[in-house]
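Assemble and predict.
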Amino acid sequence: MRDNPDADETAMEGVRVYGAHRATVGSIDVRRALPQRTRRTIGPWCFADHLGPASFTEREGLDVGPHPHVGLQTVTWLIEGEALHHDSLGTEQVIKPGQLNLMTAGRGVAHAEERTGRYRGTFEGIQLWIAQPDWSRGGASAFEHHHELPRVAVGDAVVTVLLGDLLDSSSPARHDSDLVGLDVDVRSTSTVPLAPSFEHGVIVLRGSVRIGEVVVTPGSLAHVPIGTAELRLEVLEPSRIMVIGGPAFEEPLVMWWNFVARRREELTAAYQSWTTRDGRFAEVTSALAPIAAPVPFWLRAGD
Ligand code: MN
């Protein structure tokens, strides 16, 4: 993985920084690092929301009502607080820091993300989407909760392997294509090995680091190009970072609302299934009201 003679081992070249845009999900503010107008994907990763930090009480929290997904996996990872996941497979799962919720939509799933009703304090985390490859995106939906994940000491960092591999450690979580997802808890300047055949994204949740010539702070995304064998994190303050990556995503991708597909007609079909409740998306048991889909702009234009 590290001994590609063509990779540049010394310089962090070609790193670009993008600003995240602010959005609201449920009751809280998020920083949307992906997609960017000029950078839709990083490997198969196609969406990244840094959630919070927000202040929750027993009666106020992550209140995202039932909504559908197709063609993607959702990765939920918290660094503080807790949340409750309900889905149309019948899953009910509390998630806490250090644990991974991985939901595979395939042809269609619906879920809600709720407060647990017993937590008071800061809530912060990240939710990412992985575009499923063609062979699995029309398949069955599924849900995995991982209570424990491999942790690897790298320099002065503790790296948790959410997805894929780092050195000799592999995540037990399902992945349908080559990718990596790492949580890096770093105290002083450290170097994380990268697969040179992957492009990578760096999202800082807390703290600040310098990567080559650029400083990355919460609210921005750094893109590290293919051919980079090491990620040198020059730590400006102790930081909590997500590193995502994979081979450049070559299949055509269309995304709209909560759906990932290859052609617009597939988005229209998913929109109609959710809106007409035709049974493609099974019911979710939730105290919250389902979220209505907006009318796609390409359907409005024909009115
Ligand atoms: Mn969702």
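Residues 65 and 112 are 5 Å apart (CA to CA).
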